[in-house]
Predict the structure of Zinc ribbon domain-containing protein.
Amino acid sequence: MPTYDYRCDANGQVVEVSHRMSETLSTWGELCARANLPCGDTPDDAPVQRLATGGNVITSGSLGSGVAPPACGAGGCCPGGVCGLN
């Protein structure tokens, strides 16, 4: 089964989960249930976004701080191709 990375804007966390290609997770509660993680203080209905990793594996452990970089703003382009990094 393929793995996917999801980012929650409410808490900045990135979580990697496996699921069928036909499935999509849309809330923090769904993501936590799939990853067998506690939801903590983040509301169950907080939206999550599947990241387009281009074949690279992005996990919270590989981000150093465990916090995802900020999402790109609409209509803008980040210097160097990655938000917050030059």
